[in-house]
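Thread: "does anyone have the structure for this chain?"

Original post by V.I.:
We have the sequence but no experimental structure in hand. Need at least a predicted one for the grant figures.
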Amino acid sequence: MRENAKLIDVTPHDFDASTVYRVDSEELLYHTYIIEAPSALTILLKPWIVGSRLANAARASTVEFLRAAYRLVPELASSNYRGITEVVPLAGSLYYSMAEAFEVVFGETINRCFVGAKRHLTPSGWETELSYENYEALSPNPVIMIGDTIATGGTIERIIDATLSRAEEARAIIIYSIAGGLMGAIRMKQISERINLPIYTFFSNAIFGVEPNGTDMPWLHPGTITSETNREIARSSYGPDLGRRWCCVWDWGDRSKHPLKHLHELIERCDGELREVKDETTRELLMKFRKESESALDLWGRPLSL
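Reply from O.Q.:
Generated one for you, tokens below.
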């Protein structure tokens, strides 16, 4: 599919920090976009970035998404504040900072609903359980906005269905994924056709091929759709070996809300591979990742100061 997908530059004339492509493919929604923004690219190339650096980069990328969405989604551009609702899949979506970014772009906060969603692996594949739902702030006839990491799209489909059962007169759904998978992107088209409602999907820097485990999304996966510039940057950052095997984002929830766990797992992964890998380029990159992760851990060990 990657070979048949065409990137069409639709960057608004007043954008200077990012490039926006529409991804032209029969298997995807017409309104499928990739936003090439340095903020999110940093997240996807440097797995040791956590804490405030991760939060600031995620918020900056969401600002770029909102600016692009305003220019490319007519339902958003023609809306007022009361007509927009963010649905927040707990807890990973919190770290997209959609409400804070919305205030930066539009000068106001946003109505927010919350859904507790957790997926688990069953003999028949991944299934999603909704353990908590709070739709008290759902707008009438809303434009629904969701920011979340998407791999296969099963979780986002459950959330969309739960939301629309309470918002039958919704006007459009706008989705932003800092790390989004091709399987999920294809599923969005199927969902849009089933619910007969416009869905606009925005992906950060690439639409990633998804590994058979339904979770990992490597930069150099054969199915990954991105510009050649980004592909070469990723190849340089990860090398051809890790770039094909390592997930671009790791576990977003752990990385966001439990950074020490993420850093320890990253170091353990580096140590394990250093015992096995013989390729010198890969070994140099593993040692770099380990050193950066150790430095990040040291920062978290420092005492508080004013």
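V.I.: this helps a lot. The chain has two domains: 2-227, 234-300.
O.Q.: and The first helix runs from residue 38 to 45.
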